[in-house]
Amino acid sequence: MAHDTLPHPVKTPRRDRPPAPAPRHRQFWPRRVNPLAGLGSVLWLAVVIVPIYAMISASLTRQDEALGRNALQPPTRPTLDNYNTVLNSGFGHFLANTAIVAAAVVGIVLVLCTPLAYVAVRTRTRWSGAAFRLFLLGVAIPAQAVVVPLYLMIAKLNLYDSLLAVILPTAAFAMPVSVLVLTGTLRDISEELYEAMALDGASPLRMLFQLTIPLAKGGISTVVIYAALQAWNGFLFPLIFTQSDGPRVLTLGLFNYVSQFGVNIPALLASVVLSGIPIFAVYLVARRALVGGLMGVGGK
Amino acid sequence: MSAPGAAPRTGRPHAVWALPGVLFFAFFAVAPMVLAFLLSFTEWNGLGDPRPVGLANWRRLLDDPRLTQSLWLTVLLTVVSWAFQTVVALLLGVWAAGRQRNRAILSAVFFVPFLLSSTAIALLFYALLDPNFGIVQKDTLGSSNGAFLAIVFVGGWQFIPFHTLIYQGGARQIPPVLYQAAAIDGAGRYRQFVSVTLPQLRHTITTSSVLMVVGSLTYFETVLILTQGGPGTDTAILPYLMYEAGFKSYDFGYASAIASFLVAAATALSLLLVRLSGFGAMRSVREGM
């Protein structure tokens, strides 16, 4: 998806097209039946579906029925009580915090990484090369490795137990992959287009906004999705840098439910189901962008 | 912000444009790495100021039998997870790159686990593996092998959808001409897979492997929620060991020594992978296709 908008001569097959009008040569490889592959994919389907089914069915089970019962059994008297319990335990507040963190992280990453990638691709100086390599190395830094010094820094900056304490490091750690994805996309924009704009006397800034960004939509949407997922998934930074209910994000809220609900596993699973619903809704609406954007990571 | 003095005739941006991003990243990611290394020579309980103690933490670390165990576990977890995820994701991804209708539906379902956060997934399996409640009415997490395999499985369950997608994207970019040529040469399905698909996917395999290897260092949530490093210390991978030393025992100097170790290992790994793959060569992967 990342390259569909690019004026590039290399063929980029469009995805998700109805199968009928595919050109003749395209039918060539997948058409034959492959029983082994079919079997494997059905097997994996079971691996995916069974836990999800067990989770949903358990979340609808009354707590007194839950223990000693096999998780694969459907509930005899389904109930929504567990969902009520969870919704009354700050779920909405945690979700709102996560949304704030995600929006802020996406904003910071886009504002910082777009010019970075632009420079890395468009200028060939020693400095821009060094900056690019810095981010390349950064891809491997696990957040765990720096959490102790970050804790010290966050405390000294007086940010402890605030949403900013989660937002700033999360954004920083989303940057390396974002820079890689963006440089990958920008590199495919042809030099002639820049030259044409330069002849018209366009400034680099104008080129960025009128040429680069419009043509890099695919890469940019990948970065948006990636950064948002990082924020959505974040656990360690919130765990260490926040403490009170005020700035608590959803992942940490879920983690706290373990102690709050104790052995009330149905309520715990209801909280997991609820946490999946918002992003599942996004998935239903924007499936193509989500999937296509992430697919672009591997196309590079 | 605008620095038009650069080279207006070619319209190239000034390198200064990259500065805000570099500074931000340097402050919140690179500086802490350096600081972690410095803190490893101190003793600090989280309150007051760190006190220098020389090499004490490092000596202690090298004598700690838990480090050897943890290191071995981390490597084992990475290798086993990589093998499991690569095999499944590669096969599913290449299969899903085909065009029948049921494939589209199935790949949509395959993607669903990725929509849950690591925390949610760890909690889900925490419940499903509960001996009194779960699918397997056995104390899986109470046995050392069971706990290890559970972590590998849960990691795969979460990340295989993503890597499948990456392979699907990669496989769709393989020109069909290559398959036609192979078929004309009399290559069967298996032969085509080995001689066309795999070599054509080498960049994809590298990208996906880098992400997997780096990602397996972040199985922290899964370990924390599923096993707490247990039974005993049998699933205490390096990041978990670091977390325990720092945020449970408030021994931040020692935790920093473990963290520095982690940074060194991760950096070495990424350098190796970048070398092997030409990932950093700044060239378009479409070249030579």
UniProtKB/TrEMBL annotation, chain A:
The chain crosses the membrane at residues 36-56, 94-119, 131-154, 166-186, 207-229, 265-286. It is found in: Cell membrane. PANTHER family: ABC TRANSPORTER PERMEASE PROTEIN MG189-RELATED, ABC TRANSPORTER PERMEASE PROTEIN MG189-RELATED-RELATED. CDD domains: TM_PBP2. Keywords: Cell membrane, Membrane, Transmembrane, Transmembrane helix, Transport. Its main location: membrane. GO terms for biological process: transmembrane transport. PROSITE patterns: ABC_TM1. The keyword Ribosomal protein does not apply. Residues 95-286 form the ABC transmembrane type-1 domain. It is a multi-pass membrane protein. Belongs to the binding-protein-dependent transport system permease family. GO terms for cellular component: plasma membrane. Residues 1-26 are annotated as: Disordered. InterPro entries: MetI-like (IPR000515), MetI-like_sf (IPR035906). It comes from Streptomyces chromofuscus. This is Carbohydrate ABC transporter permease.
Automatic annotation (TrEMBL), chain B:
GO terms for cellular component: plasma membrane. It is found in: Cell membrane. Residues 71-273 form the ABC transmembrane type-1 domain. It comes from the Bacteria. Gene3D superfamilies: MetI-like. Keywords: Cell membrane, Membrane, Transmembrane, Transmembrane helix, Transport. It is a multi-pass membrane protein. Its main location: membrane. Belongs to the binding-protein-dependent transport system permease family. PANTHER family: ABC TRANSPORTER PERMEASE PROTEIN, INNER MEMBRANE ABC TRANSPORTER PERMEASE PROTEIN YCJO. This is Sugar ABC transporter permease. It comes from Streptomyces chromofuscus.
